[in-house]
Design a protein that fits this description.
This protein has 391 residues and is of the alpha+beta class. The protein has a domain of 144 residues: Thiolase/Chalcone synthase (Peroxisomal Thiolase, Chain A, domain 1), CATH 3.40.47. Helix 3 crosses helix 13 and helix 10 packs across helix 11.
């Protein structure tokens, strides 16, 4: 099997989405596929790789309905400089869609079918919001026979309630979750101040002509005292709040994947090698456990232990998710989400996996660590995890 490498990675700024107040979202006027096209063009331009050299495009999107349906990934391909010869696909594995897109294109390289490919993802949560509205409109439906299954659909279909279930069953306290959220914002704010995100974040213009260059969700002044004042968001007697949940977010990201031969042909140095990727199924009512279960599975596939991993990117869909993974795998917390995570940066569902892997690759370079693991829980009761090695 051939090796697949991450040659480069870039993303848009992540903005705060609000379906009822689109004016707060700098990307509300921009379709997600158009934004991904912008990211792809900027990525190819700075790498010096012509669009005609791209042989595969995988696009992640968690809610591929309305204007996020991309005709099997053709819209962002047509909207970018990627050549017409390039096949594409759109992948919906909910919050794991971006990592699944990376896996799809990487496997094409590993089997020798291609040498150069792109994996990207997007979500505009102002234009296509998650939650009950899509069900109320009839855009999304639930099969009637599922009502007869032994599933608690009230919980399974509400991500906030699944986080409540995980926190309750694993005895993660409100104080722990709030403290982890504060930590995420503090780390992201420090990274922003140090210019860390400039290495991955693009300054792009929205349809109004404004330059969108900053992540909009980081709150440097967040404190445990402020978060303690927030009411539960999903259950009257719950512990999950807007403060220890990731915010609705719009954004896009893409990674350039190559074989060793392609890297040599274009004179590029890779930032990471893909070692292994695995996903899993878990109880849908406790979907937040999926990140930890998938991480255990990918460690086994790679022949590694948690102690071998120098840096982790565990998606902060809710504070409970990385907290459970840290406890379950006995991970050193200082190695997790070193520059903050989705609680501060945001979680544009289809783009998140690409950001996790891309930021992780950059982190390994920055800290001279050998192995890193990116992991995410997935709505519906799944998890996905990837191990990469610094080049």
């Amino acid at each position: 099997m051939n090796d697949a490498y991450i040659a480069d990675f870039a993303r848009s700024a992540f903005t705060r989405a609000h379906p009822r107040k689109p004016e707060v979202d700098a990307w509300s006027g921009q379709r997600g596929d158009v934004l991904l096209g912008q990211v792809i063009d900027a990525l190819l331009d700075r790498s010096g790789v012509p669009g005609t050299a791209v042989e595969d495009l995988s696009v992640g999107c968690a809610l591929p309905v309305k204007d996020q349906w991309s005709f099997g990934g053709r819209y962002p391909q047509w909207l970018s400089g990627v050549g017409i010869q390039c096949p594409s696909r759109q992948i919906d594995q909910q919050c794991g869609s971006g990592l699944a897109a990376l896996r799809s294109t990487a496997r094409e390289i590993q089997t020798g079918a291609i040498e150069t490919g792109l994996a990207g993802g997007y979500e505009n949560m102002s234009r296509v919001p998650m939650g009950p509205s899509l069900f109320q409109e009839g855009v999304l439906t639930v099969p009637e026979p599922l009502q007869q299954k032994e599933l608690d659909l009230t919980v399974a279909m509400n991500m906030g309630l699944t986080a409540e279930r995980l926190a309750r069953e694993t005895r993660i306290s409100r104080e722990e979750m709030d403290a982890f959220a504060v930590r995420s914002h503090q780390r992201a704010a420090r990274a922003e101040q140090d210019g860390w995100f400039a290495g991955e974040r693009l300054a792009l213009r929205n349809p109004a002509g404004a330059l969108v260059a900053q992540d909009a969700n980081i709150r440097p002044d967040t404190s445990a005292e402020r978060l303690a004042e927030l009411k539960p968001a999903f259950s009257e007697d719950g512990q999950v709040t807007a403060g220890n949940s990731s915010p609705l977010t719009s954004g896009a990201g893409a990674a350039l994947l190559m074989s060793e031969a392609a890297l040599s042909r274009f004179g590029l140095s890779p930032i990471a090698r893909l070692v292994a990727i695995a996903d899993c199924g878990v109880t849908p009512e406790c979907m937040g456990a999926g990140a930890a279960v998938a991480a255990k599975r990918v460690l086994k596939a790679a022949g590694l232990s948690a102690g071998d991993i120098g840096a982790w990117e565990i998606n902060e869909a809710f504070s409970a998710v990385p907290l459970y993974a840290i406890r379950s795998l006995d991970i050193d917390p200082e190695r997790v989400n070193i520059f903050g995570g989705a609680l501060a940066l945001g979680h544009p569902l289809g783009a998140t996996g690409v950001r996790l892997a891309g930021t992780l690759a950059r982190t390994l370079q920055h800290r001279s660590e050998r192995y890193g693991c990116a992991a995410a829980c997935i709505g519906g009761g799944q998890g996905i995890a990837m191990i990469i090695e610094r080049c």
